[in-house]
Amino acid sequence: MALVIALGIALGGCSHQAKTPQQQFLEALKRGNSAQASQIWLQMGPEERVKFERGQGLQPAQSPKQMKQEVMRRAMEESADDGSDAQSSTTPATGGSLGDLPRYLNSPQAGGGASP
Question: pTM above the 0.85 mark?
């Protein structure tokens, strides 16, 4: 009897893993299957669409702990890269402005200048 109860609890725990229509819709889009995503969207009721708009029924691809680790790793990589780039960066040369346009138009290189 205890085995039956334990098996029932184990199987009951697996049943909550069913994917919501919102999750199925996003996974179909991620795979590039727009026809399947469209069919899922059409089969979703108004309440399910509202839940989708609110972000309910969606499971993140990574756990919050994994996300924090990934953000920290990328921040460390960027800080290591920024240190070497800061020493070799130079300021770009400034160009002219629209106020300088008449001077450029009247220059001999532009074909302008005083007529003889």
Answer: no
Instruction: Give the CA count within 13 Å in the CB-facing half-sphere of 47.
Output: 1
Residue 113 lies in a domain: no
Smallest CA-to-CA distance from 25 within 45, 44, 4, 6 is with: 44
> In this predicted model, what pLDDT tens digit does every residue of 70-103 receive, in sequence order?
999 999 998 887 665 545 556 655 677 777 778 7
Query: What is the secondary structure of 29-57 as a DSSP string?
Result: HHHT-HHHHHHHHHHS-HHHHHHHHHTTT
Range of the domain at 58: 20-78
